[in-house]
Every structure is written in C-alpha cells, then in structure tokens.
Amino acid sequence: MSRLLRIVLIHTHLPGVVELQLDQHTNICGTNASGKTTLQRLVPVFYGEQPNRVVPKTRKKFDEFYLPYSNSYLIYEYQREGGALCQVVLTRKSDGGVEYRFVAAPYQSEFYLIESNDGVKALSYSDWAASMRSRPEVQVSAKISATSEYRSIIQNDAAALRGNNADSVKLRRLAASFSLVSSGHKLRHIEKLVSAVHAKEGKMDTLKAMLAAIFEEDGVTLPTTKVKNTKARDWIQQMRQSMRLDKLQQDFERLKQLAQQLDGSEAQLAGLLPLLANDEQSQKQCKADAEQQVNTLR
What is the pLDDT of residue 163? Predict the structure, then answer.
C-alpha cells in the first residue's frame, strides 16, 4: 500500500531538524498560533498541490517561508505500492520558486547533515548534489522545476505523460520509478481532495471549489440553463403542492367512505320510522284500554 511515511524539515521556518511521523495516527498539539496548521499545509504539496496555494495570501511565498536558506530542505519519505521507500526533496530555486528531486532511498540524516566544530550543519544545495552523485547505489533524479511535471510523476497521470518527445519519455521513466501507484493506475486530482479535507474539514463550499477546479483543469464545460429563478421557484411550489395532493386524495377517499356509511345509516333509520309510529299508536290504544279496565274494576 502506498503512503506518506514522514515529513522532515531541515532549517525551514522551524530551526534545526524537525520530523513528523505519518505512518500511523499522528496528533499535532499546540496552543493557538503555534504552527499546527502551518505544518498540515505541507501534506497537499506532497500530492502535487501548487505550493503557493497552501500559503495564506497574508504571508510570504511558499519558498520564502518554508525554504528561507540556502541549506533548507523539505523532505517527504513515502512508500510506493510495491513497498519500495523513496524521497521527494524540495529545495529553493536561486530565482525563487521550488525544485523537486526524487531519491530512491529512505531518508538518512547523513545525506543532508555533517558534523563540524560548530555542531551539526546542513549541506548547501551544491554540496548535497555532489554528495548524492558520489553514492552510485542511490538513484537521484534530475531537478524538476514545474509542479505540473512533479504532479504527473507522483500521481502517474497518464494524460499528462502522453507524447513521444524527450520530456514526455523522461517523465514516464520517472513515473515508473517513483510514482505512488503501479502502472495502469493513477491518482489524478488527489491533491485537490487532500487540500479540501485539510482546508476546512470537507465543508460544502470547499468541496464545491474543489470540483470547480477539477472541471476547469479537465476542460469540462458545465451545462447552462435558460430557466429564470422566478420560474424555478414557481415550479418548486407546484411540485410541493403536487406532493401534498396524495395525502389530500387519501383524506378525500376516507371522507367518501364515511359519507356512504352515513347515507346507509340514514336510510335504515328512515325505514324504521313508520314501524315506530305504528308501534306508538298501538301502545297508546293499549294504554287507553288498560285505563278503562281499571276504572271499571274500581
């Protein structure tokens, strides 16, 4: 299973060497404004997000904030789908911006740090590159200056790797050696999903912005409609009335049944009325005869 294992920061916005273990559950604790979110913003960059998009507009650019020195390193150690451990090393360009390099080996402090009389120091970029070239057993890629190229490699994005020119061939070779997934699979747009989750915990506005960015990048033209808002609201009102009509129809059928029962009861009472009248007359006659007999007996 491919996964990000840890993030190593050397002389970044935090002094010294800082390691974040991400192979299991990771909990970042601290008071307000202590830098928790600042560290979390580094996760989408690994998956191919534009670095300057994760930094608030009120701050410096990504390279100026996270990579302020000539020996500042931002290192992502990850595991490929086949189990191999690799690194992505981010350094700062001389004219501003970020450069990416892939290293086919797990993170080792001796790759970047040396001991001197003044303590442990990080190598400069040129010294680090020379040191890595002196290690033939470790494969190190050339510098990758464009985030789009890095994203296509780490995600194994086939759409961006098509073509027969030299650059496309180089990117396909790097993707075969360093992508998170094996050939035949891809993680296209994974950086947008990770950014949306880390930005506002998956709220609807963030998810809508993520989908809009995906559609824009893929060149998808969304369908348009000429229906006006007032007409749509009228249609919704009619639909709600139609939905209430079913219950009203059921109530009407029940009332019809009660009306039929009432008509039957009234017809039955109307048939009993003459019988009651005759019975009343006979009872009156019996009462009169009984009273006359009582008088005679007296």
Answer: 66
What are the residue ranges in the chain where pLDDT is below 50?
none
Three-state DSSP at 85 gives: strand
Residue 219 in any domain: the answer is no
pTM: predicted TM-score of the whole model, two decimal places = 0.69
* Pair of tokens at residue 259: 């009306």
Q: Which domain holds residue 10?
A: 3-188
| DSSP line for 144-211 | B--HHHHHHHHHT-HHHH--SSHHHHHHHHHHHHH-SS-TT---TTHHHHHHHHHHHTT-HHHHHHHH
pLDDT, position 56? 83
Of 188, 211, 233, at which residue does a domain stop? Answer: 188
CB distance 141 to 174 below 8 Å: yes
pLDDT of residue 205: 74
Asked if 112 and 10 count as a contact pair (C-beta separation under 8 A), the reply is: yes
Cβ neighbours of 296 (radius 10 Å): 7
Q: Rounded to whole angstroms, how far apart are CA atoms 92 and 13?
A: 13
Q: How far apart are CA 16 and CA 112, in angstroms?
A: 12
- The secondary structure element, H or E, covering residue 86 is strand 85-92
Residue 78 neighbours by CB distance under 10 Å: 22
Number of domains in the chain: 2
Q: 101: which strand partners?
A: 89
Judge whether 198 lies within some domain.
no
Characterize 177-202 residue by residue with b for buried, 16 or more Cβ atoms within 10 angstroms of its Cβ, and e for exposed: ebbbbeeeebbbbbbbbbbbebbeee
Task: Judge if 246 and 138 occupy the same domain.
Answer: no
